[in-house]
Amino acid sequence: MKNLFKIIYFLIVVMTMSGCDDFLTVVPQDSLVAENYYTSEANVRANTASLYGSVWWDFHSQFMWLAGDELAGDLYYTYDAEGQFYYNKVGAGNKFNNTGWEGLYRVVSFSNSIINDMPSSARENGVSEDVIQKALGEARYMRAVAYYFIAENWGEAPIIENATELITSGNVADIYVNKHTQSSLYRFMCEDLEFAAGILPKTDEEGRVTKWSALGMLAKVYVTRGAYEGNSEYFSLAKEYARQVIEDSNLALYDNFSTMFDVEANNCSESLFSIQCMVGNYGDGNSRNVNWSRGSRIADQTWGAGKGPTISLQELFEEHPNDARRKWTYMTYGDNYENMDKANGGYTYQFSYRDPEDLDTQVESTNGMLAHIKKYVIGKSADTGGQVGTNQDAGNNIYVQRLSDVYFLYAEASMGLSETTSDAAAVGYINKVLDTHGAGYNVSAPLTYIDLIKERRKEFAFEANSWYDIKRYYYRNNTAAIEYLNSMKRDQLYVFDYNSIDQEGLSTADKYVLENDRNSYIIGWETTDNGEWDGERVNNIVFNSSSMYISLPAEVTTKAPILLEGAVDYYSE
Q: What is the DSSP string of 407-423?
């Protein structure tokens, strides 16, 4: 689905009441009339194509990884509003908190527009019921995925099924909707996904979601719901849904981890749902290549010099030094990548890189992690055949769920609420992922829950999964999950050992050698707020129960104060 259709907004109603458009995230722009648009199968498919691309931009461009990876303790970055996620200081005023919320409700709004406006118009125009139902399946799948992220980040939130009815009811009070309970959100997701699983096709050549996508997401939601509500029946459902995806789908694990996050793997056998990215306008592509790339040697635009894998994530990988996934997850000293900086024979990572013709010119500097992110970083336009643009728009898709996740979910569902599993199939599924992706080791029974979380952390690092894995851990065992978060050493970084290394009289060339010698660095504590090194541990990054949900954005609660009230059940029974 490379040539995405432009996103189509339907004019629901002209908004005349201040703030209601922001709350419901309905943005009236292109005033197409539904009955004149849904005239054919091609038009219906063109409209549902909008659900796969730039409608997700406000979520995936930053909030997705800020919450999923940085808040979770996998991604190091300390600057400004982005750094607040690392420091566990995300407040109601954080701008990315607001854009993440609005972005997800925009997906809900687009999905609702198709669910509510499309069927009657398409039927009047003679579109087949099969096409209509498939479109509804796609829209309800997308709405469920959006609500999954809403529930896991903010907890209680409004369920909006039909914004048109709310706005046109004539009752101003209807526009501002109570938050609904987290249990209501889970039930709502499951209903949408069960509908989608029953109607979506088993295959789609364009990279659209299928029956297996819906069953895979059902496995994730039911594992989460089971942990949150303490209901063992939900784990049984999750296990069966995961089994069906693994055994009945004919889908296969992608066998080359080194290219899994490049353009060539778009819509590969491992993709259950990927945000479709392309080079084009702002909002069309994958911004991680810009956000995470280290410097100008490997990127046309770059904001990632200060970002890297945390020390705790690196230490986890170092437990198995031959794990081939590590090199394709993050870069550190000596790693060579032939597919980047091709004009100069490939890129070899050094802690510090100076211009060979002028050693006084620093081209790349060390960061506090002595490493940078590789996953989703694909290089320059010249290195990728034009698959990287200048509008934060790389052409490699962004996985929301891949097949490996379902293999792991089967094992998690097998545990239920216990702390271990010896289920041979569960252990075997995890080992199949490890073998296929080149981990170089296997796990054995009994498999503990914390071991499962750690294995997931390595497999899905920088894919915005880790925070949600920790949330499920928290639902099962509040204290243990918080202890796990507080054990991550996120207040530590690598510091050049100025005290023990005498640099007096050293040439620039000699200093350059020291900059690239790991023995020149010590693991120290984060600097104080004023940026001065005082030799003492400064740990202001502490998690507790109040840290496990992000505050509702102030911009939203100011316009809709009802969201500050207690949550209500969405379902009457």
A: HHHHHHHHHTTSSEE--
CB 234 within 8 A of CB 165: no
Name every residue whose Cβ is closer than 8 Å to that of residue 522 and which is 6 or more positions away in sequence: 494, 495, 497
Say how far apart CA 557 and CA 92 lie, in whole Å.
Answer: 9
CA distances from 301 to 62, 204, 264, 289, 335 (A): 16, 34, 21, 8, 21
Distance from C-alpha of 517 to C-alpha of 345, rounded to nearest angstrom: 23
Burial of 239 (0-12, 13-18, 19+ CB in 10 A): buried
Cis peptide before 446 (omega within 30 of 0): yes
Per the CB < 8 A criterion, the answer to whether 108 and 146 are in contact is: yes
Q: How many other C-beta atoms can be found within 10 angstroms of the C-beta atom of residue 194?
A: 17
The predicted-structure confidence for 108-134, as pLDDT tens digits, reads as follows 999 999 999 999 999 999 999 999 999
**CB-based contact 115:140 (threshold 8 Å):** yes
* Burial state string for 423-437 with b = 16 or more CB within 10 A and e = fewer than 16: beebbebbbebbebb
Given the structure tokens 């995470």, which residue do they identify?
292
Q: What angle do CA 204, 207, 208 make, to 5 degrees?
A: 70
Given a cut of 50, whether residue 23 has pLDDT beyond it is no
Read off the pTM.
Answer: 0.93
- Beta carbons within 10 angstroms of residue 230's beta carbon: 11
Q: Are the CB atoms for 467 and 443 separated by under 8 Å?
A: no
Q: Of 398, 10, 406, nearest to 246 (Cα)?
A: 406
Question: What is the β-pairing status of strands 372-373 and 330-331?
Answer: antiparallel
Chain-centre distance of CA 278, in angstroms? Answer: 18
